Amino acid sequence: MSTLPPDRRTIDDLLAKARTQDRYNDYDLAAAEARLRSRQAARHRPRNPEAALAHTEWTTPEDDRTPDADRAWWDLNAVSLLVLFGPDADRHLSDFIDSQYADTTGALVFACLLHVAGDSSGARFWWRFAAGVGHPVAEYCLFLEHAHSGEYHDADLWRTQLVRQHFEPTYMCGDRVTAPVVNPPLIADVHPHITRTHHPELGTVPLPQPPLVKELRHLTSLL
Questions:
Q1: pLDDT (tens digit per residue) in 98-134
Q2: Angle at Cα 129 formed by Cα 108 and Cα 63, nearest 5°?
Q3: CA-to-CA distance for 77 and 113, rounded, in angstroms?
Q4: Cα separation of 29 and 211, whole Å?
Q5: Is the pLDDT of residue 4 over 60?
Q6: Who's near 143: CB < 8 A, 6+ residues apart?
Q7: What is the mean pLDDT of residues 172-191?
Q8: Is residue 140 predicted with pLDDT exceeding 90?
Q9: Any residues with CB less than 8 A from the CB of 181 and at least 6 apart, and which?
Q10: What is the pLDDT, as a whole number, of residue 54?
């Protein structure tokens, strides 16, 4: 009867040797995720920042011509910033959290924050939620977001809805030229206060946590 050599290693020994050792105890995972989101957002951001200054008026739904991708993005960015810097944005976000994510205007605020933070898919999810119960600014955001993404059929569907409601961007969103400018590194501070849960039918859904309200107040107090 044969016996194993005395130095024969078990499968557990081999796996233990092959397993990657944790040499990054001080690695900041949250910061790494923020960097990845920032890079992802940069890939979808217009390359010509001067385009933001090329026009001072909103894209109107009555215009039969779908806006080009750059203009749609800058308009969407302006809407989002005006929403976030509105006088009651923090209260609406707080109501959204307290209501277990059922407050419509709070959903709009959160979606705009996600957009500015580079989470386009999360922003689209919550804009759809708000638009589904008739929030006109959320519908306008979806019109612009689909136009920016080249999804012209979907953009036209939201355009038709906005025209039917006689939507006026300046009245509903404010003066376009007053939209503030936010330093991207400041936006990165919101990510630790956003969790993501997986829904079997909806996919990954971002959810705000209570500290995000304070972070939004801090962000909007810097200007």
A1: 999 999 999 999 999 999 999 999 999 999 999 999 9
A2: 70
A3: 10
A4: 19
A5: no
A6: 61, 155, 158, 159, 162
A7: 87
A8: yes
A9: 81
A10: 60
